[in-house]
Amino acid sequence: MPPLLLKAETVSLARKKILLGVTGGIAAYKAAELCRLLVKAGADVQVVMTAAAQQFVTPLTFQALSGKPVLTSLWDAASGDGMEHIHLSRNADLLLVAPASADFLARLAQGRADDALSTLCLARACKLAVAPAMNHEMWAAPPTRRNLGQLQADGVQVLGPAAGEQACGEVGLGRMLEPVDIMSALSGLLGGGALAGRRVLVTAGPTFEPIDPVRGLTNLSSGKMGYAVARAAAEAGAEVCLVSGATCLATPAGVRRIDVQSAADMHRAVLAELPCDVFIAVAAVADYRVDAAAAQKIKKTADDLTLRLVANPDILAEVAALPDAPFCVGFAAETEQLAEFAEAKRLRKKLPLLVGNLAQDTLGQDAAELVLFDNQGQHRLPRADKLTQARNLIAHLANQLN
Fold this sequence. Notes:
This protein has two domains: 17-189, Rossmann fold; 199-401, 3-Layer(aba) Sandwich (Rossmann fold). It has helices spanning 28-40, 59-66, 84-87, 102-110, 116-122, 136-140, 142-153, 179-189, 224-235, 263-273, 315-320, 338-349, 359-362, 386-401; strands at 17-22, 44-49, 94-100, 127-132, 157-158, 162-165, 171-175, 199-204, 208-212, 215-218, 239-244, 255-259, 278-281, 288-290, 309-311, 327-334, 353-358, 367-374, 377-385.
């Protein structure tokens, strides 16, 4: 079985017109690197800065990196008619605000237009994406959650944030995505790629089946592979919805995420998201649940405890059996006889594509060796990091779709 060598299709940024908005926050220094990477990739970059952003990085820095004067005020007269906030977006491919502070997200959600950048966002004629950056408590605050919900309902793409150590010394969710991660997300945002125009539904992570309020049955799954698949699909231009069990992973850029707990929760969420073009079932769904979970904690009264288990719905088989079924991709984590068991599962569920791996070689790890099973046979993907493998999978899937 020779290795399968694929290259995921990405959108070239050459000659793409990108408006880069920079708001106030320490993450503004990352925007300078993002600007450099965009220009290096061949994009035509115009930077627009708020007054607060200029307290962290000077306009001269971005002028040197972009090769263009930076728009800092509604009263700049570079166009001759004072209408830069109108003209700039008319031929732009994307308006990207990175970093987007909590204050700017609030103003954007309210439709404020009191400076050059907010007015440009309101008057835009192109796609808008924001890369939030703020303290983790600000990110979790109810007003911020409401503002984000409104922005997403308005069609604004939200990239990140990431979790980790913050400039204030605290740790949590709120860091701006790294510039290289934002660059990876641009293929989907710019409407190109091998899955452009496709709607992809991905499941990831474990499910948890309660025994009582403090105990439950679950599977060993970090969610890393599923999240990598969701990211790779978004990079390929797809509209991606990720239905996820409990993980500690950040939502991939450009991906809409739905959190669930049990297999029944995941089943309902998946059916509610149909129809879609592609369904990729990566989640480690529990095969069984407790027939009647206890309402109160079960006390230890004997050496033995008997639980009656009943089968959970087979989400993948149910979706694959629909009359208008999407292109379904399954995953099989085996501990032995991979080829035999994985191919049997593919045929039993009537799947066009199944990804197999040995559980002991991949669970919780950052790398994996995979085997793709389809109607043409078996295709080995030599061991690599999970994002690389996810991109390989998406490239193979796209070839089959097209």
